[in-house]
Write a structure and sequence with these properties.
The protein is an all-alpha fold and 182 residues long. The protein is 71% helix and 0% strand.
């Protein structure tokens, strides 16, 4: 249960005494906090603090005793609640990205990259198996000639020859494809 505010504490608060304000805060802040929580405020503690920051410099002008003080504090609390609701209405609602609700009609960069890899794979498939393997190991896997030779159990000279022939064949296939497209 909240502490009751004595007449001496009220007089001290209205006179600007910090101990009087402290007593007002201890007696009335739980009710203000409960008001904000009951109204569904996310950060009710911060809004309660804002109310008492607004009330402090205006305490000297409060009239009506205990009832007048409570009325004044809750009128400030109500004004802060209205401000909070208005700010909440203007704040955009952030939602998680859901690819199932994505209505874009163009393909994503990922889809385009994977699609172009499909074209490369189809072109590479037209090379013989050894040329394709050498080019993939050298270019995609970024292995040295010696490493590829060890993997394929061939000499470095044979790997160089397969790479040269594979690149030459690939160049012809790409040139052929470009001429067909235009």
């Amino acid at each position: 249960m909240a502490q009751q505010l004595s007449d001496d504490d009220l007089s001290a608060a209205l006179a600007g005494d910090p101990s009087g304000f402290s007593a007002v805060y201890v007696a009335i802040s739980p009710a203000v906090l409960g008001y904000f929580r009951a109204r569904g405020v996310d950060d009710a503690e911060a809004l309660t603090q804002d109310v008492f920051v607004d009330v402090l410099p205006k305490l000297a002008g409060v009239t009506g005793g205990h009832t007048g003080l409570r009325t004044f504090i809750f009128s400030v609390a109500h004004a802060r609640l209205v401000d909070y609701r208005r700010r909440e209405e203007r704040t955009p609602h952030l939602a998680e990205y859901d690819p199932l609700n994505d209505a874009r009609s163009s393909a994503s960069a990922e889809d385009e990259a994977l699609g172009s890899l499909g074209g490369i794979s189809a072109t590479l498939a037209r090379l013989n198996e050894e040329q394709r393997e050498v080019l993939v190991l050298r270019i995609v896997a970024d292995l040295s000639i010696e490493q590829v030779a060890g993997i394929m159990d061939k000499t470095p000279g044979a790997i160089k020859q397969l790479q040269r022939r594979g690149l030459s064949a690939l160049r012809e296939l790409v040139t052929e494809k470009d001429h067909a497209a235009s």
